[in-house]
């Protein structure tokens, strides 16, 4: 990735730049590297921070969306952050929403891209062919509009995760937790400026999910990216950064 991963206590994270804090939260199969182009673009003018969420190290019985939100709160407290603009992809967006509900005092703005929290058509509740490399490859490619975005390195990483029993149990626990924890009744209270950046060909959280978020969040703006799936900041980083940059300047210049 090219950025130093810092380790302090229980936290691993990337931190680049200075100024208004942008806290970036990755998804279920995500990693710090998902945000490479975002860090490169925004660290000149913002303090960009990406914590590595403990998806594979939480106690099995406490592996859920709320626990991840509390981890983020612990991290924010540790780093003494305030007036934060949270940017979450997929499960990271869902964790953002739970955090915002529980700790509104630290929030300045919300950015969701391919976020769960209302509905998602994830990789499935089980992995019946998890030892079949080509099956996993197809599932990873399904995440993107252009299957070439699913590099061999990415497929290898996901294949390794789903064939590690401890990691797989936690993945399934988190996926089920995300489905159970619907946020539709909470969004009306989230009056911060909210930015929705969505791939038009997202098959995991389809376009009607973005439209529902836009309807339920009182102060939201929706930006579409064509020829783009579930991870716009990876698949169409220039367009993602363009929309995010314009929205940030409009609300937080």
Number of domains: 1
Q: Output the helix-strand order.
A: EEEHEHEHEHHHEHEHH
Can you count the beta strands?
8
The appropriate CATH architecture is 3-Layer(aba) Sandwich
Instruction: For the record, give the distance between the C-alpha atoms at the N and C termini, rounded to a whole number.
Output: 29 Å
How many helices? The count is 9
What is the spatial order of strands in the main beta sheet?
1-2-4-3-5-6-7-8
Please give the CATH class.
Alpha Beta
What is the fourth-level CATH superfamily? Alpha/Beta hydrolase fold, catalytic domain
Tell me the helix content: 25-40%
Strand content: 15-25%
User: Would you tell me the overall average pLDDT?
Assistant: 92
Which geometry do the CA atoms define? globular
Largest sheet: 8 strands, mixed
Uncertain runs are none
Radius of gyration, in angstroms, nearest whole number:
17 Å
Instruction: Provide the CATH topology.
Output: Rossmann fold
Would you tell me the structural class of the helices and strands? alpha/beta
């Amino acid at each position: 990735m090219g950025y130093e991963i810092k380790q302090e206590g229980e936290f691993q994270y990337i931190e680049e730049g200075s100024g208004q804090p942008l806290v970036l939260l990755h998804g279920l199969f995500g990693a710090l590297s998902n945000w490479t182009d975002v860090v490169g673009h925004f660290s000149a003018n913002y303090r960009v921070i990406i914590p590595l969420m403990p998806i594979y190290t939480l106690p099995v019985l406490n592996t859920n969306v709320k626990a991840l939100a509390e981890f983020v709160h612990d991290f924010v407290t540790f780093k003494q952050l305030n007036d934060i603009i949270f940017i979450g992809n997929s499960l990271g967006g869902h964790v953002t929403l739970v955090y915002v509900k529980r700790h509104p005092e630290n929030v300045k703005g919300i950015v969701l891209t391919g976020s769960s929290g209302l509905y998602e058509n994830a990789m499935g509740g089980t992995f019946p062919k998890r030892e079949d490399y080509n099956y996993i490859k197809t599932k990873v490619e399904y995440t993107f509009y252009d299957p070439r975005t699913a590099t061999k390195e990415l497929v290898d990483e996901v294949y390794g995760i789903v064939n590690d029993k401890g990691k797989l149990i936690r993945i399934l626990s988190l996926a089920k937790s995300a489905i159970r924890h619907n946020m539709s009744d909470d969004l009306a209270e989230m009056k911060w400026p909210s930015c929705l950046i969505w791939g038009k060909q997202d098959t995991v959280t389809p376009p009607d999910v973005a439209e529902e978020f836009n309807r339920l969040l009182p102060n939201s703006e929706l930006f579409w990216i064509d020829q783009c799936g579930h991870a716009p900041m990876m698949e169409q980083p220039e367009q993602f950064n363009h929309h995010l940059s314009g929205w940030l300047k409009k609300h937080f210049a």
